[in-house]
Amino acid sequence: MRSTNTFSILFWADQKNATNGEALIYARITVNQKRANISLKRRVPVKLWDPKKNRSKGTSAEARQLNQYIDQTYTKLFQIYQYLKF
Asked: What range(s) does the Arm DNA-binding domain occupy (predicted)?
């Protein structure tokens, strides 16, 4: 019998607890409806965060660097999930 596993990764900036106009970025990992939140220990200016895309806005060096870090984190988390799955 096959079991169905669900897996998702969501990134968001905690704008409610922003200090000095900068919010911490978190990753939420969901596996089979169980959640775990992880802080990425990175800050982003609230005005540069796009909540619909879950990425930093713009093409500045800071925005590109942050988006690249988010992509790398996504890849690492997905690889870990694949490793643990088998």
From this structure: 13-85
